[in-house]
Design goal:
Blueprint: H1 8-19, E1 37-44, H2 53-61, E2 72-80, E3 83-91, H3 100-104, E4 110-112, E5 118-120, H4 130-134, E6 141-143, E7 148-150, H5 156-159, H6 166-170, E8 176-182, H7 183-194, E9 211-213, E10 221-222, H8 235-262, H9 272-288, H10 310-333, H11 338-361, H12 374-382, H13 385-397, H14 401-430, H15 439-452, H16 454-480, H17 484-511
Parallel strand pairs: 1-9
Antiparallel strand pairs: 1-8, 2-3, 2-10, 4-5, 6-7
Helix pairs in contact: 8-9, 8-11, 8-13, 8-17, 9-10, 9-13, 10-11, 11-12, 12-14, 13-14, 13-17, 14-16, 15-16, 16-17
Length: 529
């Protein structure tokens, strides 16, 4: 048959034969990966027409609803109207060499097969969604109906029997293909040239294996650049983090008081009522975190991966810390030896400090630029000033006025450091420059703070002034003048206002975090926005 006599279908089949295109084929002629090799996707951006057939095929193959997308098509634009050009990037899991989802998962629900595919074990997932934060490409997707996270597995069961993945089969232009890559060669030579595409995260974060074919267009703008969408409030985590941090601050004050008392200074020694006061925030806050999970009944399995997961380390450390406070309440009740009790207190304090440090490290991830800074750790620890205010309040109720007058300045001192960090944050966004790393995401965070949540930000500012600084200073003066009833009233207001201030700050912390993600991903599925 001559070329002129070929039908369009015949012509397309001939073209597929000549170019070895995988699209439309149910079988794949590709060797199994050898040692040091793995499967990967190849995406040809010059061939993609943005039809989203790959998304539909993936959803149908894996029985996912429309809001669950394992493969997404991002859109960018270049040029100036009317000479505008659209560009597309079809992305599923990049089956990275160093997958952050696997490293951070507290239940070890991610497995990297010998063939390189990063597989998610649905049965062991507790729906903590930590992987949805950790992945710089936002690949894992939370399935609300199932209470777990799910993701692309490259149709591994089809590859095992020599069939192509659904997305490869469905692409009408042959823009998606499966390849074998030598991992060592990829990392050392090819990844820096062939593993990058415009507006994607730094390849060094996870070392993705997807190979790109792109044109030489410069200055592409994500099609969703004008869309600024707040994140989920994460209320269980708001209360859990703030309450455990308050508890640690109060307990630190008790251990300091125990030490000073042992040195012979005639100040109040910790009592069982003070222990109960610092125990309650932790005892209330820690179980609240389970409400964040898709499958809270399996919360106990979150401690499985202490080797690499900060979430596992936090769960274990704060669980031991709270159990330790329970033990100390019993030791106070049965009047254990003070020196022995102090040794136990030091151990529990160390565990608690590590727990809050691990808690802060959960958020210091490269995929969320507004979180990924040392100030996050400082802000978490400085919430402890409220714990010192709480113990000062209890001391005044117990008529230990001298001890309260010693502790209150410490609370004011830590609160001032919290205020300094808040000012630093405001100055950071005020002076944000286009040349700064991750400017695109951080500028959206700035907009959320200054426009979408302007009233919340204003409340945070005023409440920090009043509740954390002004009222504690007034309480110190009233206590020194012997006006104890008014001091109790002022400290009560201080505790309420400062706690509400830190809660608002933490809500903003979650809602304003903008992920690196896939550029132009406004058709994204259920990312709990």
């Amino acid at each position: 048959m001559s070329l002129n006599e070929q039908t369009p279908l015949d012509s397309f089949i001939q073209h597929k034969t000549d170019t070895n295109m995988q699209c439309g084929n149910y079988s794949i002629d590709i060797a199994k990966p050898k040692e040091g090799e793995q499967y990967r996707f190849h995406f040809d951006a010059t061939a993609c027409i943005g039809c989203h057939c790959c998304e539909v095929a993936c959803n149908e193959q894996n029985n996912n609803s429309a809001d669950i997308k394992w493969r997404r098509v991002g859109e960018t634009q270049s040029g100036i109207f009317p000479n505008v050009k659209n560009h597309f990037n079809s992305m599923s899991c990049n089956h990275c060499v160093e997958p952050e989802c696997l490293i951070g998962c507290p239940t070890e629900s991610y497995i990297k097969f010998d063939n390189g595919i990063v597989f998610h074990d649905d049965d062991t997932c507790i729906g903590c969604q930590y992987c949805t934060w950790n992945c710089p490409y936002e690949v894992p997707v939370f399935n609300k109906d199932r209470g777990i996270v799910t993701k692309c597995h490259m149709c591994h069961e089809k590859l095992d029997v020599g069939q192509t993945p659904a997305c490869v089969q469905a692409c009408p232009s042959g823009a998606i293909a499966i390849e074998i890559v030598n991992v060592k060669d990829w990392i050392e030579k090819d990844m820096a040239e062939q593993g990058i595409a415009p507006n994607l995260p730094d390849i060094q974060i996870t070392k993705p294996t997807t190979r790109y074919t792109i044109d030489d267009t410069k200055d592409m703008t994500p099609a969703d650049a004008h869309i600024i969408k707040p994140n989920h409030s994460e209320w269980p985590l708001v209360f859990m983090t703030v309450l455990t941090q308050i508890s640690l601050g109060g307990f630190g004050a008790l251990v300091l008081g125990e030490f000073i008392n042992l040195l012979g200074f005639k100040l109040a020694a910790p009592s069982i009522w003070m222990m109960i006061a610092v125990f309650l925030p932790a005892a209330i806050g820690l179980p609240l975190s389970a409400l964040h999970l898709g499958r809270p009944i399996l919360a106990y399995t979150a401690m499985k991966n202490i080797k690499t997961s900060w979430l596992s380390r936090e769960a274990l450390a704060l669980g031991l810390y709270t159990a330790g406070l329970t033990l100390l309440i019993a030791m106070f009740f049965f009047e254990f030896n003070q020196v022995f009790r102090f040794c136990v207190e030091l151990l529990i304090l160390g565990i608690g400090i590590y727990g809050i440090y691990a808690q802060s490290m959960i958020y210091r991830i490269k995929a969320r630029p507004s979180w990924n800074k040392k100030e996050t750790t400082k802000i978490f620890f400085y919430v402890s000033y409220i714990g010192l205010l709480l113990i000062s309040f209890v001391l005044i109720l117990l008529e230990e006025y001298t001890s309260a007058s010693v502790l209150l300045p410490f609370a004011l001192f830590i609160a001032y450091f919290q205020y300094i960090e808040y000012r630093k944050q405001k100055d950071f966004y005020k002076n944000l420059d286009e040349s700064d790393n991750n400017f695109y995401q951080l500028n959206k965070t700035k907009t959320l703070y200054e426009k979408n949540f302007k009233k919340y930000t204003e409340y945070r500012t005023s409440s920090l002034y009043i509740g954390a600084l002004g009222l504690p200073l007034l309480a110190i003066l009233l206590l020194a003048s012997g006006n104890y009833q008014t001091t109790i009233l002022v400290l009560t207001l201080s505790l309420i206002i400062s706690t509400s201030s830190e809660i608002v700050s933490r809500v903003l912390f979650y809602k304003t975090a903008v992920a690196l993600g896939l550029a132009g991903n406004f058709f994204a599925g259920n990312q709990r926005g």
